[in-house]
Structure formats: structure tokens, C-alpha cells
Amino acid sequence: MSEFAQERLLRIAVPNKGALSTSASEMLKESGYRQRSDSKELALTDVENEVEFFYLRPRDIALYVGEGTLDVGITGRDLLQDSGAHADEVLSLGFGRSKFHFAGPAGKYADLGELEGKRIATSYVGVVEKWLAEKGINASVTRLDGAVETSIQLGVADVIADVVETGSTLRAAGLATFGEVILESEAVLITRQGAPLPVGFDVFLRRLEGVLVARSYVMMDYDIRVDQVDAATKLTPGIESPTVSPLHREGWVAVRAMVPRKGSQRLMDELYSLGARGILLTDISACRL
Ligand SMILES: Nc1ncnc2c1ncn2[C@@H]1O[C@H](COP(=O)(O)OP(=O)(O)OP(=O)(O)O)[C@@H](O)[C@H]1O
Ligand SMILES: O=P(O)(O)OC[C@H]1O[C@H](OP(=O)(O)OP(=O)(O)O)[C@H](O)[C@@H]1O
Ligand SMILES: [Mg+2]
């Protein structure tokens, strides 16, 4: 590798463990990048694609990117906001979804106004203190590293604030959420605030966007009579415009368009009712729009 090429490697932070790690690596693999085969590897250089991956704690990733040590990172929106790092979200990645809630002993609290004067335990002190300040609520906040649910039982806190996905951890601890959702989170791509986008970032972004499109769209093909083609293509307008090709059979055309995966079965039913036949759905494995 030339010295010039080495300088141009895009440095990307990837969660090394926890709820985001596997999905992040899978998405990068689907985008055509090499990923580590051993979870003990700390970094990996993909020379062919001119990128270098650093496997870091998801909580630390926003700091590295905010400081400019690394160019790009994948982390959770909640972790980014909690860190106070100077990094911006550039793309939502659609995995690692969670909701951030206050919770207490089931049935004890109903309203977030009741937080006044309470002791709150959380791993997300930044998010909680910012929210309390915005609402003008005074409460004491204690930082715990994890297993915050147990802190109430142990008498360290009255209330917790934590990530809830299925809610099973809360239920097992006899706790329940109360009040509105404080923050909806998912994995996000982040870059340094106020800095020019790093060299090579456009290609990286386009690849990830391609995976998101390939995951959420399918390719639909069908044959239909010419007199119904306007009605049918209204149902399948595609991204730019559907491809309509002549068929050997007189009075019929073939139509091809990308359609959202969600609702695609119902769409097939509607097309069938319009007289479409030979309706096919195919997965898209990669895409650049
Ligand atoms: N069920 C879940 N549990 C925890 N975090 C989740 C869950 N689902 C999604 N997430 C997201 O994953 C990120 C937290 O990741 P992770 O679990 O690795 O952090 P952590 O709890 O601080 O680390 P660890 O549990 O390894 O000490 C957050 O963005 C969070 O919203
Ligand atoms: O709603 P659920 O599906 O039960 O998921 C939420 C739980 O998962 C996370 O804990 P994690 O497993 O990361 O352990 P930790 O508390 O030690 O971080 C989070 O802190 C909650 O405790
Ligand atoms: Mg955790």
C-alpha cells in the first residue's frame, strides 16, 4: 500500500459488544466491508475498501468521533446524547431500537411530576439531567454502570431511568414505566460536528444507505393488459418510475418496480384483482439509488 493510500483510510468506530455490536457488523458486511472474525480483534484494516475499523465500547464511540480521533462511528442515539460529545447524527440505521423511560415499583408512580425530590439511578446521567433541567424538576441522580433495576430493591434509589426494549427486565424486578417516553433510540451513524465530511465518507454513506434500501424494498414484476397499466403503475410507481416493457403476447406488458417490503403482499392481491398475472417478488441484495 502506498503512503498516499494509507493517509486516505476512513477510520470507523464500531461497537465491540452489547446490543448494537452484531447488527452493526452484519450491516457493514452487507455493505461489502470486511469484518473481524474474532471478537477479540480490536481493529481491522480493509485496504481494498480504504477503511479501517476500530472496535470500541458503544458508550465511548461518540467521544472518539467528537474529538476527531476517528472519522465516523456507529452508536446509539441515546449514548450520543448522553455523552454530550460534539458529534452529529447523519443516518439512522434501523436496528438497536429502544425507548428510554423512568420506572418505579409497579403501581407506585403515575406521573413524571412525582420525580421532584426523588433519588434516581441511571447509566444515562447526561440524558436524565438534561431532561430534568428542561422540566424544572429537582431530583438527585446517581450514576450506575448497569443492572440499575436492582438499585430500588437495595434502597439506593426511588426511581430508575433506563433503556427498555421488551420490558422483561423491568417486569422481573417488579418495576413498571411511568410517564411519557423520554427518548426513542436506535443505532445511528455519526460524524464530527462542524467539521468537513472526511474523505471517502460519501462512498461509505452510500453503501449503508444502499443496505437500508435493499432491506426495506423488494423488486416486483408482473404482466398486465395494456388498458390496466395506468391503474397498476399507480399502485407501483417505483422510485424513479416503473419499467414497462412490451410482451410478445398482444395487448400485454411487463412491469418492474421497486416497492416497499412492508405491505407488498397486499399490493400483490390488489394487482391480481386488477388483472395482473405472473406477479413476482424478489429480494434486493444491494442497491445504489
Ligand atoms: N435490550 C437492550 N438493552 C440495552 N441496550 C439496548 C437494547 N436494545 C437496544 N439497545 C441500545 O444499545 C445501546 C446500549 O448498548 P450496550 O448494551 O452495549 O450498552 P451498555 O448497556 O452500556 O453496555 P454493557 O451492557 O455491555 O455494559 C443503546 O443505544 C441502547 O439504546
Ligand atoms: O426491556 P428489556 O428487553 O428487558 O431490555 C432492557 C434491559 O437491557 C439492558 O441491560 P443489559 O442487558 O445491557 O445489562 P446492563 O444493565 O448491565 O447494561 C438495559 O439496561 C435494561 O436493563
Ligand atoms: Mg447494557
Automatic annotation (TrEMBL):
<dbReference type="InterPro" id="IPR015867">
    <property type="entry name" value="N-reg_PII/ATP_PRibTrfase_C"/>
</dbReference>
<dbReference type="InterPro" id="IPR013115">
    <property type="entry name" value="HisG_C"/>
</dbReference>
<dbReference type="InterPro" id="IPR013820">
    <property type="entry name" value="ATP_PRibTrfase_cat"/>
</dbReference>
<dbReference type="GO" id="GO:0005737">
    <property type="term" value="C:cytoplasm"/>
</dbReference>
<dbReference type="GO" id="GO:0000105">
    <property type="term" value="P:L-histidine biosynthetic process"/>
</dbReference>
<comment type="similarity">
    <text>Belongs to the ATP phosphoribosyltransferase family. Long subfamily.</text>
</comment>
<dbReference type="GO" id="GO:0005524">
    <property type="term" value="F:ATP binding"/>
</dbReference>
<keyword id="KW-0067">ATP-binding</keyword>
<dbReference type="GO" id="GO:0000287">
    <property type="term" value="F:magnesium ion binding"/>
</dbReference>
<feature type="domain" description="Histidine biosynthesis HisG C-terminal">
    <location>
        <begin position="214"/>
        <end position="285"/>
    </location>
</feature>
<keyword id="KW-0460">Magnesium</keyword>
<dbReference type="InterPro" id="IPR018198">
    <property type="entry name" value="ATP_PRibTrfase_CS"/>
</dbReference>
<keyword id="KW-0808">Transferase</keyword>
<dbReference type="Pfam" id="PF08029">
    <property type="entry name" value="HisG_C"/>
</dbReference>
<keyword id="KW-0328">Glycosyltransferase</keyword>
<keyword id="KW-0368">Histidine biosynthesis</keyword>
<keyword id="KW-0028">Amino-acid biosynthesis</keyword>
<comment type="function">
    <text>Catalyzes the condensation of ATP and 5-phosphoribose 1-diphosphate to form N'-(5'-phosphoribosyl)-ATP (PR-ATP). Has a crucial role in the pathway because the rate of histidine biosynthesis seems to be controlled primarily by regulation of HisG enzymatic activity.</text>
</comment>
<feature type="domain" description="ATP phosphoribosyltransferase catalytic">
    <location>
        <begin position="57"/>
        <end position="194"/>
    </location>
</feature>
<keyword id="KW-0547">Nucleotide-binding</keyword>
<dbReference type="InterPro" id="IPR011322">
    <property type="entry name" value="N-reg_PII-like_a/b"/>
</dbReference>
<dbReference type="Pfam" id="PF01634">
    <property type="entry name" value="HisG"/>
</dbReference>
<keyword id="KW-0963">Cytoplasm</keyword>
<dbReference type="GO" id="GO:0003879">
    <property type="term" value="F:ATP phosphoribosyltransferase activity"/>
</dbReference>
<dbReference type="InterPro" id="IPR001348">
    <property type="entry name" value="ATP_PRibTrfase_HisG"/>
</dbReference>
<keyword id="KW-0479">Metal-binding</keyword>
<dbReference type="InterPro" id="IPR020621">
    <property type="entry name" value="ATP-PRT_HisG_long"/>
</dbReference>
<comment type="pathway">
    <text>Amino-acid biosynthesis; L-histidine biosynthesis; L-histidine from 5-phospho-alpha-D-ribose 1-diphosphate: step 1/9.</text>
</comment>
<protein>
    <recommendedName>
        <fullName>ATP phosphoribosyltransferase</fullName>
        <ecNumber>2.4.2.17</ecNumber>
    </recommendedName>
</protein>
